[in-house]
Amino acid sequence: MARAATTSDAFNAVAEPRRREILQFLATGERSVGEIVMRLGFEQPSVSKHLRVLLEVKLVDVRRDGRHMLYRANAEAIRPLHEWTSRFERLWKHQLLQVKERAEKKKQME
Amino acid sequence: MARAATTSDAFNAVAEPRRREILQFLATGERSVGEIVMRLGFEQPSVSKHLRVLLEVKLVDVRRDGRHMLYRANAEAIRPLHEWTSRFERLWKHQLLQVKERAEKKKQME
DNA sequence: TTGACATATTCCCATATGGGCATGTAATGT
DNA sequence: ACATTACATGCCCATATGGGAATATGTCAA
C-alpha cells in the first residue's frame, strides 16, 4: 500500500506546505480563488486542486458569488490537530525544565 | 513532482497514523522497538522504518542499551505543529461564538 | 448568442510511499 | 567461534501524489 490519501484527514491535508499557506491566508478572511492565486503566486489549477483537498476534509468552506468561488477557513476542523499536539505539551514543558536543571547543575559544578 | 518527502518535516511525519500511534506510545516513556511492536501489533520492520522517519525529523531520540534500542519522544519537535494550529485558535473560538449567536437569534424568532 | 472572465477538471508523468518478505548487522551468552 | 536475540535495511510493487498544460464548466455582460 502507498501512503494514506491526503484527502483522508486533516493531518494529511496540512502535510502539504502549499495547503498550509492557503489555509493561513484564508484565516485572514474569505477569499476568492483569484485572490489566493495573486497572493501566493501558485498556478491557478494548483490552487483549485489544493482547495478541493481542503474542502474534502472540511478544512475550508465555499460559497459562490457570481463567477467567484469564495473560500474560508473552517478553523473548527483544525482543532483535532491542535488537541493532538496538546497531548505533548506537558511533556515538552517537562523536558525543557530538565534541560534547564541540567544547565544549572553544570554551572554549579564549575 | 510528487508529494513532499515524509522525512522533510514534522507535519509530513505525523501525517501517517501509525507514526502518530508510535509517538503517543513513546510519550508515556522510553521504549524499545520490541515493546512498540508488542503494544501496537505492527510488523517489526514497519516499526523500525517508521522510527527512522521520526528520527530524521527529530520527533524521537534513541540510545542503545545492549541489544535494545530505546526510543523516546522529543516533544520539543512537536511544538511547531502546536504553534501552527494555535494560529487558528482565535478563529475557531470566534466561529463557535457565531454559531451560538445564530442559534440564539433563531430561538428568539420562534 | 457570443465572448470574456473565473474556476474546475483531466491527462500525463516523475517520484515518494508503506507494506511484505528476506536478509543484513550488532550485541549477548555459552 | 557460534547460535540467538533485537533491530535495521533492502528489494519489489501497487498506489497516491502534485505539477504542468490543455481543456471543460459555469457565470455574467453586451
Summarize the structure.
The structure is a homodimer of 110-residue chains. The first copy, chain A, is of the alpha+beta class and 110 residues long. Chain A is 57% helix and 13% strand.
Can you offer a commentary on this structure?
The structure is a homodimer of 110-residue chains. Chain A is an alpha+beta fold. Chain A has a domain at 10-77: Arc Repressor Mutant, subunit A, CATH 1.10.10.10. Chain A is built from six helices and three strands, in the order ααβααββαα. Chain A has a three-stranded antiparallel sheet with strand order 1-3-2. In chain A, strand 2 (60-65) and strand 3 form a beta hairpin. The radius of gyration of chain A is 20 Å and the shape is elongated. The A-B interface holds A 3-4, 6, 11-12, 14-17, 20, 23-24, 27, 73-76, 78-79, 81-82, 84-89, 91-92, 94-96 and B 3-4, 6, 11-12, 14-17, 20, 23-24, 27, 73-76, 78-79, 81-82, 84-89, 91-92, 94-96.
